[in-house]
Amino acid sequence: RPSISTASTDPWASSDFRSGVDFVSRQSAKLLFTPVRTWSDGTTTQVDEPLRQLLQERWNPLMSAYDAIYKAVSMLYVHNTSYSLIQREGNRPVAIWPLNVSQARFIESEGRVWAALRFANGKSGVLRLDDLLVMRRHFHNADLTGDSNSAIAADLRMSQALSREVINSCDNSGVIRGIVFYPGNASIEKLDRLREDFVKSNLASNPSGLIVTDSSVDYKPLTPTFASVNHEDLDANRDRLLASLGINADLVSGNFTADQYSAFVE
Fold it and tell me: At residue 1, does pLDDT exceed 60?
């Protein structure tokens, strides 16, 4: 069977995508899972108090139910497939461990399906699929996993490019640039010394932005140009990334109505 890698893209590095995943994960982590038994007449009753405590209070010794659900859901939305190991004593689940999986390969043997997993820390292991809680989204092409994030790769690159351009514009907006002409001919070594002297006298620690020269020096300032980044470009890219998560900017910012939030929860 083919190997499925989740390390081809890193949506978590995008601030817009991360804020959306964080919103969905926080809301999901508020859910309370309750084990029930469904009878033949359609009625249900709650059963198994230890399992209820496991699901609603603490999934494992290191994670509360809130933390574990948050982690499992965030893995789902970043990688489109989320794996959690069900630890059992006999047949009874005693802990659930969300796994940070970077690659998964599935093997059929003697009527069972096994998952050969490589984890983010470089370690690997082979687990029965029956011992894994697997959640998937964009479950279309592969048999057992969600699809890759190739559909949003361009938007992720655009988000990084726009953010980088904004940072560059801010960093360079106050930088003094120009060309200094000295009369006569000078060696490269002398020009280097003259440049260092000019920088030391006029540019280093010069918050005023003013340059003072005499007639022996001709200074021509240069105006740097940067690619124009406007709010429309930033907002459009953000909205496309959030739409891939099934949410919008109002939900992430908290600027939503009760009806909008109810629709999201449904």
Answer: no
